[in-house]
Amino acid sequence: MSYVITSACVGCLDAACVEVCPVDCIAGPVSLEEVVAAPRAERGVRWPGVQLFIDPDACIDCGACAPACPAGAIFGEDDLPLGAEDLGRARAFHAAR
Ligand code: SF4
Ligand code: SF4
Fold first, then answer.
1. For the whole model, what pTM was predicted?
2. Percent of the chain residues past pLDDT 70, beyond the cut
């Protein structure tokens, strides 16, 4: 099983999830170095429509990221509000990297 980031992440890019992940399996279309260097309050405006994705094949299901997310955007695979839709987007993103 994997944890999954839903579209509630869009506009946040807080990256608190990235900081707590023990296996560094969270990434997005924008370089994380660039995101972390930008002031937190500006990230959602600077990269509109952008969200991060967990690599479902690398996630070890530790659950550390979900409580760290200020947007409540992260769920266990079996508890996703929109079913497998967000998991499919995460798989597609990481497969294309
Ligand atoms: S998953 Fe949560 S903590 Fe991580 S970038 Fe998205 S909204 Fe922010
Ligand atoms: S559940 Fe654990 S391993 Fe998976 S993305 Fe979250 S922090 Fe990383």
1. 0.93
2. 100
